[in-house]
Fold Pilin.
Amino acid sequence: MKINRKGFTLAELLIVVAIIAVLVAVAIPIFGSQLEKSREAADLANVRAAYAEVLTEANMGIYNKEVIVNLKQKQYDWQSADVITIGGISHSVKEGDTDNWIGKPGAGGTCKVSFDQKTGTKFVWSGDGTSASNSYDMSEDFFDVLEKSGCLKDEKISSNNDFEIDSKAAEFSTFVPKIEKVLGEQSLLKNGTWAFLGNGNSDKASERYLFWTSFDTNKVGVGKKIPILIQRGDGKYYVSKSLTAERKKGNVTYVAISDHLFNKWGYERVIKAGDGKVYNSLSEAYAAYEKVLEGYKDLPQ
């Protein structure tokens, strides 16, 4: 009897591995998103219970009752809904602070529930993104900012496979003022130094990068190592470091966030110089950036 000992070929095994890798890449973000929504649901249930406790006391004439709920969620702001309702009080995530609703929730945060005789129940949220040291908008997408500015429609950018828009070049750049014009009041880009870099072609959006540092590079000087937060065009975030570099335009000299980088391979090398982690949200990346700052206390702010 002839025994067939034929197995899988190497090509077949590689195809199976590739399919599994694609499925895992798709499943992980979805799982992470659903997990965060479940944390938010648990937080809301706990806050509603605290609301009921505070309101019961208020109905008995006791108005100084406060209940603090420790939050389970890991991301800044709400991910599960545009409007949150607790005990008849509804709040839109785009609405900002009101008499009854102050701040936004985040990782390691709390919700303090209290009662005010004039305005009613008050919810005060805190966490990464709303601490005293970080009042930035962690829901901001920097490439939405770039799109809204109209810079990508300019031929100097749209036909350029290696453009650079540096915030320190505002004196002679027509692009920097356009970007600054559309920044929100709590935009990270209103502080420190930033640069949009990469490929301006419409089909190469994933090859664009935003470099940001909390330091004023003109104060730091040339050839200094600085920490940077990076958003890549595919929506991923990274924390790394770069060397500041001198730029000249006519009689004007300024210090850029990094030396000249050529094509995406140059930018990817900067990413690889970092902590090796990929962050799926700005709040996560910023929290990691703040930890890295501890090693740069000698640099002038």
Notes: The chain is about 30% helix and 25% strand. The chain has a mean pLDDT of 86. The two ends are 81 Å apart (CA to CA). The longest helix spans residues 10-59.
